[in-house]
Amino acid sequence: MPNDIFPDELTLLHNPRCSKSRAAKALLEERGTQFRERQYLSEPLSSAELAELAKRLDKPCSEWVRRGEDAYAAAGLGAEADDKSLLAAMARDPILIERPILIGRKRAVVGRPPERILELIE
After folding, report:
1. Which domains does the chain have, with CATH numbers?
2. CA–CA distance, 10 with 19 (Å, rounded to integer)
């Protein structure tokens, strides 16, 4: 079934300044995997895209939000924050999204460690 939110191709949510993200990208390239690179800090995800990403990750947002970022505390978030609050914060401040994330047609995985992205291509 076609998806209006993410294209059918693999999409790597990438931050080129992050070593884990660069390692994940290199793993895909070494294997000749076709993927779309999306530098999510300069091309932020919409609220609808974040909601779809949450479904594909099938994990609570607390498991893929970057709690160590200044923006997390600045947003008034804490351990009790619910998914709705976390998604809203990630939409406002994409630095809060864990990286890298590889998005497939039905699933997505956080590349921590980077080799986890291989779950979608092998």
Report:
1. 10-120 (3.40.30.10)
2. 20
